[in-house]
């Protein structure tokens, strides 16, 4: 039911009318509460500027939202599949438990059957759903400055070392190398599109990426090699500035960024990244158009490769480059995120 950016108005009207015909086809996520709901939820209708629509519970979970306890948006699948209902109830009872296939089997269920049912009905597996819930809780606590032991308890890990190991895997590091006094520091930033990882030092921002990117470990290694420094955890003025600017961006009050960034790559890559930053919010270019602007009209593939090398998501807006036929594809953070970003920017630059 989500086919074009214009659908947001139609979907919001359906939400205001509590149109149950949309149940199971679209879900509403509320940025101010971090919760996603069914269209028939009896909670007060949120403001239009505070909602985002998704096509599946999996997309909502990946974007960092929690299911509403009032309307239970994942219960619809459970109503059709008692096995799903039983496991969702178990997860709700122990949201920070470190679930594994042995636990599923101990409840009398076949893990492969569970995996198929969850993918078919919710777009993700039960174990992945449990992992996202657990790691997000732990990361949020860590970001707020809690001790490691407090964070690992929130995340449901059995030991502090277990929590640090899981946290380190997201950074592509081993637990022993995560320092609190490093010059090059990393931290989580929660956004409506899911957790992001930012890396900065006294010179500026080196990286801003979605935490679920498969390429993140290799990108972090490249940052360390270029900076000549190990990445630790900590705070910096540039990270604080980035958080404020991202908050304004997602609120739609300002789509501009002024946080200093470091440059990297070949002269050609740097030219492409500058070209990306010159694309105004709310507008798009094709790879061919961007190549022409860079006086390399036949270098569409080279533009695409340089575009893919970007490790400063949103700030260097590679999401504003689309196919020549207008199709939205080819975004390392996920096509659904690219659609969201483009719709968000068009909404807040219209008129």
From TrEMBL:
<dbReference type="InterPro" id="IPR036388">
    <property type="entry name" value="WH-like_DNA-bd_sf"/>
</dbReference>
<dbReference type="InterPro" id="IPR001497">
    <property type="entry name" value="MethylDNA_cys_MeTrfase_AS"/>
</dbReference>
<dbReference type="Pfam" id="PF01035">
    <property type="entry name" value="DNA_binding_1"/>
</dbReference>
<keyword id="KW-0234">DNA repair</keyword>
<dbReference type="InterPro" id="IPR036631">
    <property type="entry name" value="MGMT_N_sf"/>
</dbReference>
<keyword id="KW-0808">Transferase</keyword>
<dbReference type="InterPro" id="IPR004026">
    <property type="entry name" value="Ada_DNA_repair_Zn-bd"/>
</dbReference>
<dbReference type="InterPro" id="IPR035451">
    <property type="entry name" value="Ada-like_dom_sf"/>
</dbReference>
<dbReference type="InterPro" id="IPR016221">
    <property type="entry name" value="Bifunct_regulatory_prot_Ada"/>
</dbReference>
<dbReference type="Pfam" id="PF02870">
    <property type="entry name" value="Methyltransf_1N"/>
</dbReference>
<dbReference type="Pfam" id="PF12833">
    <property type="entry name" value="HTH_18"/>
</dbReference>
<protein>
    <submittedName>
        <fullName>Bifunctional transcriptional activator/DNA repair enzyme AdaA</fullName>
    </submittedName>
</protein>
<dbReference type="InterPro" id="IPR014048">
    <property type="entry name" value="MethylDNA_cys_MeTrfase_DNA-bd"/>
</dbReference>
<feature type="domain" description="HTH araC/xylS-type">
    <location>
        <begin position="107"/>
        <end position="181"/>
    </location>
</feature>
<keyword id="KW-0227">DNA damage</keyword>
<dbReference type="Pfam" id="PF02805">
    <property type="entry name" value="Ada_Zn_binding"/>
</dbReference>
<dbReference type="InterPro" id="IPR036217">
    <property type="entry name" value="MethylDNA_cys_MeTrfase_DNAb"/>
</dbReference>
<dbReference type="InterPro" id="IPR018060">
    <property type="entry name" value="HTH_AraC"/>
</dbReference>
<dbReference type="InterPro" id="IPR008332">
    <property type="entry name" value="MethylG_MeTrfase_N"/>
</dbReference>
<keyword id="KW-0010">Activator</keyword>
<keyword id="KW-0489">Methyltransferase</keyword>
